[in-house]
Amino acid sequence: MNPLCGRCNQVVYPTEKVNCLDKYWHKGCFSCEVCKMTLNMKNYKGFEKRPYCNAHYPKTNFTCVADTPENLRLKQQSKMQSQVHYREDFEKNKGKGFSVVADTPELQRIKKTQDQISNIKYHEEFEKRKGGDAPLTPSSPNQGAYQSPAASQNFHFEPAPEPVRQAAAAPPPSSGKRYRAVYDYVAADDDEVSFMDGDVIVDVQQIDEGWMYGRVERTGQQGMLPANYVEAI
């Protein structure tokens, strides 16, 4: 049995049948609801199971909702629920925000440098205390001026009976290497030493490829210094 047309309710034969929008149409009846322009399967647009052309396709309009007391109450309730969920999540995740620091080669190098500096300072304090009992004369006035503040800052050991002998304590052990500064350098940290172009750096010890530890002969100050700012004598 042949179906009926969705527009004219007449029998639709197979040769003129169009099956679309859950209905059967004559090819001539399949037209826009507004302008009656004949449509096909490529240019039609369906709305509520009725065909429309592109120009007369119904547009969806937004509905304005008034701020009634009920709507305001629902809005406030939704906002409070959001704050409750946020606080719950915050309490659950509190204390779990620790960041794991990767053990990179740069961190390993810094750690190794700090360990070497600590060992150097420890041996310096040990040699100062060991040499404090022997009345040694400094080899130069600069060395004597250097030893006086260092001995007064020795908080880890009891002071020697004679302050004069503390000032004349033996200098730290060194490998005897001497370097000359080729650039001016200003210390960027407490464990570094400042110097000027032409200063002689004595008692130099290599820490790593980029840093050394030594004493400026002109000022008597000692600390870390960049290796590329000096040259061997």
Mean pLDDT: 78
Radius of gyration equals 46 Å
Main sheet makeup: 5 strands, antiparallel
CATH class of the domain at 1-60: Mainly Beta
Number of helices: 4
Q: Kindly state the number of beta strands.
A: 9
CATH superfamily of the domain at 1-60: Cysteine Rich Protein
Relative strand content: 15-25%
Helix content: 25-40%
CATH architecture title of the domain at 1-60: Ribbon
Shape: elongated
CATH topology of the domain at 1-60: Cysteine Rich Protein
Unreliable stretches covering 5 or more consecutive residues: 134-146, 148-152, 163-174
Q: How do the strands line up in the largest sheet?
A: 8-7-6-5-9
Spell the H/E element sequence: EEEEHHHHEEEEE
Protein name: LIM and SH3 domain protein 1
Pfam families: LIM, Nebulin, SH3_1
GO biological process, one term: monoatomic ion transport
Region (Disordered): 126-157
Descriptive terms for the model:
single chain; 233 residues; alpha+beta; Cysteine Rich Protein; SH3 type barrels; five-stranded antiparallel beta sheet; 4 helices; 30% helix; elongated
